[in-house]
Design goal:
Helix content: over 70%
Structural class: mainly alpha
CATH class of the domain at 67-195: Mainly Alpha
CATH topology of the domain at 67-195: Tetracycline Repressor, domain 2
CATH superfamily of the domain at 67-195: Tetracycline Repressor, domain 2
Order of helices and strands: HHHHHHHHH
Largest sheet: none
Shape: elongated
CATH architecture of the domain at 67-195: Orthogonal Bundle
Radius of gyration: 20 Å
Number of helices: 9
Number of strands: 0
Distance between the termini: 75 Å
Length: about 200
């Protein structure tokens, strides 16, 4: 006779942490910094406040982990876009730059969370560090793609194009009808054509 199976399974520590991170991003997106607190996050994740403190030192640690996880997720999205583009250097560059104009990067919830992260990066040293590392990594990968296309000053061009992508992404996220993803893609492609040999 086999023993009766339990009606539930305990989630792994990694799954619980991931649930809390996902809930934090959602609460930040919906309620902003003012409405983001332990109670709201735990209610969204369906866990007790004690569990949050078990896995994270507190809400500040959880918000920092959420920023890092969100940055890592974006890096994976951009890397996947480059890989799908194939071997052509210009196609890989365009894929990297224009991935910001397609879901899931254009998800309105991402804007809410991202603006909260940016606000915290101005006053919290840990968030400043995550921000600096994330943007430096994005620009470094972009500079490599630019160099593969023959760019002479790839580092400077990476800064210019990052600023352009961020501005277009922000406007699309705030008002998807302002000019549209196809127009944003065309503008980036036009800028690349003007900047590269």
């Amino acid at each position: 006779m086999q023993p009766a199976r339990q009606a539930f399974t305990r989630e792994s520590a990694d799954a619980r942490r991931a649930d809390l991170i996902e809930a934090t991003a959602a609460v930040l997106a919906e309620a902003g910094l003012v409405g983001t607190n332990v109670r709201a996050i735990c209610a969204r994740a369906g866990v007790s406040p004690g569990l949050l403190r078990h896995y994270f030192g507190g809400i500040d640690d959880l918000v920092a982990a959420t920023y890092q996880a969100t940055s890592d997720r974006m890096d994976a999205i951009f890397a996947a876009a480059v890989e799908r583009a194939g071997p052509d250097p210009r196609a890989r560059l365009n894929a990297y730059l224009t991935a910001s104009f397609r879901p899931p990067v254009t998800d309105p919830e991402l804007l809410g969370a991202w603006t909260a992260f940016w606000a915290l990066a101005r006053s919290d040293a840990r968030m400043t560090c995550i921000h600096a590392e994330s943007y430096a990594g994005y620009r470094a990968r972009l500079a490599d793609l630019l160099a593969a296309c023959g760019a002479q000053d790839a580092g400077r061009l990476a800064i210019i194009l990052t600023a352009m992508v961020d501005g277009l992404w922000l406007e699309l996220s705030l008002d998807a009808d302002s000019f549209g993803a196809a127009a944003a893609t065309a503008m980036i492609e036009q800028a690349v054509a003007a900047l590269l040999p």
